[in-house]
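Q: what sequence does this backbone want?
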């Protein structure tokens, strides 16, 4: 059995997968901001739900920078240098524990759920913050594993800012006073498309992916802004650089969970 843990900036999702890839019941709770409380909550949920079962691997995806199995920094949770693997040692007996950045994990699902699996896919999740991943042949590009697109420095309104400071779901709410689900007018969606385009105009010439997949809470509403987004990108990209196909991630708010499954399958097959 595979257990997947999606630790987001606001909520945590946990589920299991059997050998056929069928998901079990979904456990959902608000992510504790206090790290010690988070560890205790994860221990409880894992032991309570899977303690009596044989678990091969636990994949923990986290909104933050992961390096050598250490959470170096999680901006949304304000965690720094946390060793989740060590702090969960011994949970579920001999189950192997692996952690990885949530956007990288979700990018795997975004690519693997397409047919055919694209040669290269740039995944962008737009939610509390912005996360990115470059996926090649359905796997994380190891050369870009530490890249953080949401923290790209871009001049916006005459000030150098991180992309997610003005284009994330949080920034959109702070600017327009509404959640994405409540935005109805085309003018606001055009303004949102402009904000999102700024990061893509930097990324596309650099990476030149075959497909761009947009997920997260804002990605759910891609149909609301895909037309102006394509128009803005086409009018600004150099003529010799093709505009990639932009698609909505399947099950955008659960992509991390499914990515954990694919990641675990690859791990167990090696």
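A:
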């Amino acid at each position: 059995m595979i257990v997947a843990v999606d630790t987001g900036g606001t909520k945590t999702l946990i589920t299991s997968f059997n050998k056929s890839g069928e998901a079990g019941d979904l456990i959902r709770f608000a992510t504790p901001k206090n790290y010690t409380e988070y560890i205790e909550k994860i221990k409880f949920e894992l032991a309570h739900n899977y303690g009596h079962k044989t678990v091969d691997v636990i994949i923990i995806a986290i909104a933050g920078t992961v390096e050598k199995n250490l959470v170096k920094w999680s901006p949304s949770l304000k965690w720094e240098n946390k060793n989740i693997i060590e702090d969960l040692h011994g949970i579920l007996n001999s189950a192997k524990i692996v952690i990885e950045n949530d956007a990288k994990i979700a990018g795997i699902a975004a690519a693997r759920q397409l047919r055919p699996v694209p040669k290269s896919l740039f995944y962008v999740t737009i939610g509390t913050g912005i996360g990115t991943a470059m996926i090649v042949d359905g796997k994380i590009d190891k050369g870009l594993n530490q890249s953080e697109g949401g923290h790209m420095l871009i001049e916006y309104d005459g000030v150098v800012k991180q992309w997610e400071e003005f284009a994330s779901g949080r920034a959109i709410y702070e600017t327009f006073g509404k959640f994405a689900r409540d935005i109805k007018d085309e003018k606001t969606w055009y303004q949102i498309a402009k904000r999102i385009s700024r990061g893509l105009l930097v990324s596309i010439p650099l990476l030149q992916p075959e497909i761009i997949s947009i997920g997260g809470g804002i990605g759910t509403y891609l149909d609301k802004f895909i037309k102006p987004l394509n128009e803005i990108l086409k009018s600004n990209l150099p003529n010799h650089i093709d505009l990639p196909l932009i698609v909505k991630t399947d099950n955008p708010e659960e992509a991390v969970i499914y990515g954990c499954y694919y990641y675990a399958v690859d791990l167990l097959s090696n």
